[in-house]
Amino acid sequence: MTEEPILLCEDSGAIRLLTLNRPRQMNALNAALSAAIIAAVDAAAADDCVSVIVLAGTEKAFSAGADLKEAKANRNMNADAARRHGEASGRLYEIGDRTNKPIIAAVRGYALGGGCNLAIAADLVVAGESA
To answer: Which of 2, 82, 122, 128 gives 105 a disulfide partner, CB atoms 3.0 to 4.6 angstroms apart?
Structure first.
Protein backbone atom coordinates (compact mmCIF):
# COMPACT_ATOMS: atom_id res chain seq x y z
CA MET A 1 0.00 0.00 0.00
CA THR A 2 1.40 3.38 -1.03
CA GLU A 3 1.11 6.16 1.49
CA GLU A 4 -0.40 9.42 0.35
CA PRO A 5 1.97 12.39 0.42
CA ILE A 6 1.49 14.62 3.46
CA LEU A 7 1.47 17.70 1.23
CA LEU A 8 -0.20 17.75 -2.16
CA CYS A 9 1.15 20.20 -4.75
CA GLU A 10 -0.91 21.13 -7.78
CA ASP A 11 -0.48 23.85 -10.39
CA SER A 12 -3.39 25.51 -12.12
CA GLY A 13 -2.00 28.14 -14.44
CA ALA A 14 0.10 30.49 -12.30
CA ILE A 15 -1.46 29.23 -9.04
CA ARG A 16 0.41 26.72 -6.87
CA LEU A 17 -2.03 24.93 -4.56
CA LEU A 18 -0.44 23.33 -1.49
CA THR A 19 -2.89 21.07 0.34
CA LEU A 20 -2.11 19.71 3.80
CA ASN A 21 -2.95 16.01 3.53
CA ARG A 22 -3.14 14.38 6.96
CA PRO A 23 -6.94 14.09 7.19
CA ARG A 24 -6.96 11.41 9.92
CA GLN A 25 -4.97 13.79 12.10
CA MET A 26 -7.02 16.81 10.95
CA ASN A 27 -3.89 18.08 9.18
CA ALA A 28 -2.00 18.44 12.46
CA LEU A 29 1.42 19.98 11.94
CA ASN A 30 4.26 17.56 12.63
CA ALA A 31 7.93 18.06 11.76
CA ALA A 32 7.59 16.32 8.38
CA LEU A 33 4.58 18.35 7.26
CA SER A 34 6.13 21.60 8.47
CA ALA A 35 9.33 20.87 6.54
CA ALA A 36 7.32 19.93 3.45
CA ILE A 37 5.37 23.22 3.58
CA ILE A 38 8.57 25.26 3.90
CA ALA A 39 10.23 23.36 1.02
CA ALA A 40 7.15 23.72 -1.19
CA VAL A 41 6.88 27.46 -0.52
CA ASP A 42 10.59 27.85 -1.32
CA ALA A 43 10.13 25.87 -4.55
CA ALA A 44 7.13 27.99 -5.55
CA ALA A 45 9.06 31.16 -4.76
CA ALA A 46 11.83 30.05 -7.13
CA ASP A 47 9.43 29.03 -9.91
CA ASP A 48 8.86 31.86 -12.39
CA CYS A 49 5.66 30.17 -13.61
CA VAL A 50 4.05 30.57 -10.17
CA SER A 51 2.46 33.93 -9.31
CA VAL A 52 0.46 33.01 -6.20
CA ILE A 53 0.57 30.27 -3.55
CA VAL A 54 -2.61 28.90 -1.96
CA LEU A 55 -2.52 26.86 1.26
CA ALA A 56 -5.48 24.61 1.99
CA GLY A 57 -6.35 21.59 4.11
CA THR A 58 -8.13 18.36 3.28
CA GLU A 59 -11.55 17.36 4.56
CA LYS A 60 -12.76 18.81 7.88
CA ALA A 61 -9.81 20.99 8.86
CA PHE A 62 -7.35 23.50 7.54
CA SER A 63 -5.11 22.39 10.42
CA ALA A 64 -5.77 21.30 13.99
CA GLY A 65 -2.42 22.79 15.01
CA ALA A 66 0.50 20.94 16.55
CA ASP A 67 0.60 17.18 16.32
CA LEU A 68 0.13 16.34 19.99
CA LYS A 69 1.30 12.74 19.56
CA GLU A 70 4.60 14.03 18.19
CA ALA A 71 4.80 16.63 20.97
CA LYS A 72 4.26 13.92 23.59
CA ALA A 73 6.94 11.74 22.01
CA ASN A 74 9.34 14.71 22.05
CA ARG A 75 8.63 15.84 25.61
CA ASN A 76 11.95 14.51 26.87
CA MET A 77 14.13 16.01 24.15
CA ASN A 78 17.31 17.75 25.23
CA ALA A 79 17.69 21.53 25.17
CA ASP A 80 19.50 21.61 21.82
CA ALA A 81 16.82 19.50 20.14
CA ALA A 82 14.10 21.67 21.69
CA ARG A 83 15.81 24.80 20.34
CA ARG A 84 16.02 23.31 16.82
CA HIS A 85 12.36 22.28 17.02
CA GLY A 86 11.37 25.82 18.05
CA GLU A 87 13.41 27.34 15.23
CA ALA A 88 11.72 25.02 12.71
CA SER A 89 8.29 26.11 13.98
CA GLY A 90 9.34 29.73 13.67
CA ARG A 91 10.36 29.21 10.03
CA LEU A 92 6.95 27.72 9.30
CA TYR A 93 5.11 30.72 10.73
CA GLU A 94 7.33 33.11 8.76
CA ILE A 95 6.53 31.60 5.36
CA GLY A 96 5.29 34.95 4.09
CA ASP A 97 8.80 36.31 4.55
CA ARG A 98 10.25 33.54 2.35
CA THR A 99 8.73 34.89 -0.87
CA ASN A 100 7.46 38.07 -2.44
CA LYS A 101 4.66 36.08 -4.06
CA PRO A 102 1.31 36.38 -2.30
CA ILE A 103 0.25 33.47 -0.11
CA ILE A 104 -3.46 32.86 0.40
CA ALA A 105 -4.75 30.60 3.18
CA ALA A 106 -8.00 28.97 2.04
CA VAL A 107 -9.49 27.99 5.40
CA ARG A 108 -12.44 25.68 5.85
CA GLY A 109 -13.07 23.78 9.01
CA TYR A 110 -10.78 24.00 12.00
CA ALA A 111 -7.72 26.27 12.15
CA LEU A 112 -6.57 25.75 15.73
CA GLY A 113 -3.39 26.80 17.52
CA GLY A 114 -0.49 26.42 15.11
CA GLY A 115 -2.98 25.94 12.28
CA CYS A 116 -4.36 29.40 13.00
CA ASN A 117 -0.78 30.73 13.15
CA LEU A 118 -0.10 29.19 9.75
CA ALA A 119 -3.23 30.81 8.31
CA ILE A 120 -2.40 34.26 9.64
CA ALA A 121 1.18 33.92 8.34
CA ALA A 122 -0.36 34.14 4.86
CA ASP A 123 -0.89 37.47 3.14
CA LEU A 124 -4.63 36.86 2.85
CA VAL A 125 -7.02 34.48 4.59
CA VAL A 126 -10.17 33.39 2.80
CA ALA A 127 -12.43 31.61 5.29
CA GLY A 128 -15.33 29.39 4.35
CA GLU A 129 -18.53 29.26 6.40
CA SER A 130 -17.24 26.19 8.26
CA ALA A 131 -14.06 27.98 9.41
So the answer is: 122
The answer as to whether 1 is a domain residue is no
Among residues 114, 6, 32, 33, the alpha carbon closest in space to that of 66 is found at: 114
Alpha helices in the chain (DSSP H): 31-46, 68-73, 79-92, 114-121
Each residue's pLDDT tens digit, 103-131: 999 999 999 999 999 999 999 999 999 98
- Return d(Cα 5, Cα 8) in angstroms, integer: 6
Rounded CA separation 74/125 (Å):
31
Average pLDDT, the chain: 91
**Domain enclosing residue 112, as ranges:** 7-127
Whether 111 is in a domain gets the answer yes
C-alpha span between 130 and 79 (Å, rounded): 39
